[in-house]
Amino acid sequence: MKIQRAERTRVGLVQMRCGGSPKENLSKAIAGIREAARRGAEIVCLPELFLTPYFCQSEDYRWFRAAEPVPGPTTTALAAEARRRKIVLVASLFEKRTRGIYHNTAALLDADGRLLGKFRKMHIPDDPLYYEKFYFTPGDLGFRAWPTRRGAIGVLVCWDQWYPEAARLTALLGAELIFYPTAIGWHPAEKGKVGAAQHDAWELIQRSHAVANGCFVAAVNRVGLERPAGGDGIEFWGQSFLADPSGRVLARASASKEEVLVAEVDYAKVEEARTHWPFLRDRRIDAYGGLTQRFLDGVGEAGSLSRRGAR
Predict the structure, then answer these.
(1) Could you confirm whether 257 is annotated as catalytic?
(2) Is the link from the previous residue into 69 a cis peptide, with omega within 30 of 0?
């Protein structure tokens, strides 16, 4: 893939509360996009499924009515902003592909408003209050990277962020900046006991992707307590951030406030990291065949992959 390089760019992350009105959420997102652009951002990313509350807290057929085609009305509205502000936009949407097939999809709009493509979330969780398998078909477009007017960009979505394979393949496709639109938070009853450890793990795994792949990583989360299904709900922990190829956090938003975070990306740091720490060069691609298996039985010599290699 031919990559259109930019020396530097500024990234805007719109950390927001997502209420019950898609119209109001879109207006708030556009306001955040405009603020980021006024502050010099040339690439702006919105949180996961920003048009609605995080409805996956329950299995409720009514929420399928909130889905829309991609491209569709929301991408049309956002394309106008991208074109007017001359910015690249990443927007996570509930995509209706056809009757009975829905995806959690990130659309990528270039600075001329053109829809460059979309990424469909690959890893779909099914945990308490995160019942995404009820709503979303796993992605079938594979991992993606695009040469935008503001650099080579990859996009993964929320649960994808826990998988080093996803980040590695996205980087191998050419991405020098990976975005993770996200909706993640605490179960309020667990926050006191495990909340700090959960957040630390979330940030640490994404910073490690930046180090292992020599790229920038940007995660943008929503914020606030949401209870669309009643009960205790989820307290989204915010703390959107941008990390450089050394894993250093360049900027981080608060845990409780709506905020537009803007920080600079210097793509020369990617070249420097990949030259000085040549993890991509030293990969043993001949020995990783086991990664395509669910689980490898056996330990010691009988279970060794050192002589099997890739089949």
Answers:
(1) no
(2) no
